[in-house]
Amino acid sequence: MAPPMSANEFLAALRREGTTVAEVDGWRHHNRAGHGLWGPVNGVMIHHSATSGTDSTVRLCWNGYEELPGPLCHGVIAKDGTVHLTGCGRVNHAGGGDGDVLKAVIAEKRLPPVRWADTDGNVHFYGFECVNRGDGEDPWPQVQLRAVEQVAAAICRHHGWSERSVIGHLEWRPGKVDPVGFSMEWLRERVRERLK
Questions:
Q1: pTM higher than the cut 0.85
Q2: Host H or E run for residue 194
Q3: Are 43 and 165 in contact (CB under 8 A)?
Q4: CATH architecture group of domain 7-195
Q5: What is the pLDDT of residues 58-67, one digit of tens each?
Q6: What domain of life is recorded for the organism (predicted)?
Q7: Mind listing the pLDDT tens digit for each residue in 86-130?
Q8: Could you state, in order of their start, the residue ranges of all structural domains in the chain?
């Protein structure tokens, strides 16, 4: 458990890891403050956007939609590897998930099967939407996968966490499938190697 990074700390951590960052105007103060807690933070959650196109995905994640107001993540990871920062603080990305999974993340242990949606993940996880349709056919360019790895490692490095603090949405909430196209064990291994 850790206090969340400030906007300056967040940006610096990403840049130290070699991440290419685009700051969406106003991201430092764009959040869901007043709609629940933000922190203590325990991990990083990876999603696919189920969209195509960087600009439209960034707009969606900034604005949200009628049923779910934005921001919908802290950053959008584009196909070209650029991370577009869209929020700082509490964002609507994780929703309710399994409290036993959160306990495993905190303990940095292997995750149990996801069963419940009894815990607010927006309190505890940094969230990133990766531009991908999530249909199993949309490709994941290596530069985009490297950016996913960099983002996760940057946050883990800042907080002193291991790769076990990186999870997918499908590992948090019943019925979710994202990200489709790579396994979280594969990503965690990449993060583990980067953190050495």
A1: yes
A2: helix 184-195
A3: yes
A4: 3-Layer(aba) Sandwich (3.40)
A5: 999 999 999 9
A6: Bacteria
A7: 999 999 999 999 999 999 999 999 999 999 999 999 999 999 999
A8: 7-195
